[in-house]
Design goal:
The protein is of the alpha/beta class. The chain has a single domain, classed as TIM Barrel. The radius of gyration is 19 Å and the shape is globular. The protein starts with 6 loop residues before the first helix and ends with a helix.
């Protein structure tokens, strides 16, 4: 279990945190809130379509932000910014993550975590200590070893992904599960199968791949799903996730025909 640091310990170590990005205001990172965003470096996945290659590879070429200056700026934005999202990279790889969240909570700010779900122990500790108010977890692919390895570029420990999903679904804070999809890696069958595996989730969202600078350059011009197909996949996936017991063959029936019509 995480030990929530005391205030003097926190203040003494604020200069040692590696923060590689800071956005003062964002309308898109936390539904219904205006948030600031902090980016921590490093990731244990190598998703070929990732747009944050610099952060994933350690952020060595990026400037380092001092947490003390960020906290001062957040004080100036009080009454305007009402939450802070910590993203990456994969934030839960950093042992100092609980300390950053504690400092933010001490300022009366709501906190959100973006995670790939690979560190369920850290996730559970943050939730148990009341350090996080909202979690967005990326579920990269259907929960089988081949699909996950293809999408993450590593041999996955799927038991950790499943455990993190379970922690969120059994927990008492709001969360969102989300999947970035692209035809090269996610077939229609894959997407609907994953939705079935996530049945009962509080909130599930698909994100259409956006071509651009990617970790694997062969993906930077990859075509996403067209708008009509994506919207239909989003609708069907949400229907499946929200249904309790309707077989996938029924919940997804007619999708391929509708998309080809």
């Amino acid at each position: 279990m995480l030990r929530r640091p005391r205030e003097p310990e926190l203040l003494a170590s604020t200069c040692s945190y590696k923060i590689k990005g800071f956005i003062e205001t964002s309308f898109i990172d936390w539904p219904g809130r205006l948030t600031a965003v902090l980016f921590l470096p490093g990731c244990n996945f190598r998703c070929p379509y990732c747009h944050n290659a610099d952060l994933v590879l350690g952020g060595h070429g990026l400037p380092t932000w001092h947490l003390s200056s960020i906290l001062e700026r957040l004080k100036q934005l009080r009454g305007w910014v009402d939450g802070v999202c910590i993203s990456g990279g994969e934030p839960t790889l950093q042992s100092y993550l609980p300390e950053i969240f504690a400092l933010l909570k001490n300022q009366g700010l709501k906190t959100k975590l973006d995670t790939n779900g690979s560190n369920p122990e850290m996730l559970e500790g943050l939730m148990d200590e009341g350090l996080v108010d909202y979690v967005a977890m990326d579920v990269k692919a259907p929960l089988n070893r081949f699909a996950y390895a293809q999408c993450t570029g590593v041999i996955p420990r799927l038991e950790n992904i499943r455990k993190s999903i379970h922690i969120l679904m059994k927990g008492n804070i709001p969360y969102q599960l989300r999947t970035t999809i692209l035809p090269r890696l996610h077939s229609i069958e894959d997407i609907l199968r994953l939705a079935e595996q996530l049945r009962g989730a509080m909130d599930y969202k698909l994100q259409n791949f956006n071509p651009g600078r990617t970790l694997d350059r062969s993906f930077q011009d990859e075509s996403p799903y067209d708008y009509t197909t994506f919207c239909e996949l989003q609708r069907r996936s949400q229907n499946i996730v929200s249904l309790s017991g309707l077989p996938l063959a029924v919940a997804g029936r007619g999708l391929e025909v509708r998309l080809q019509a």
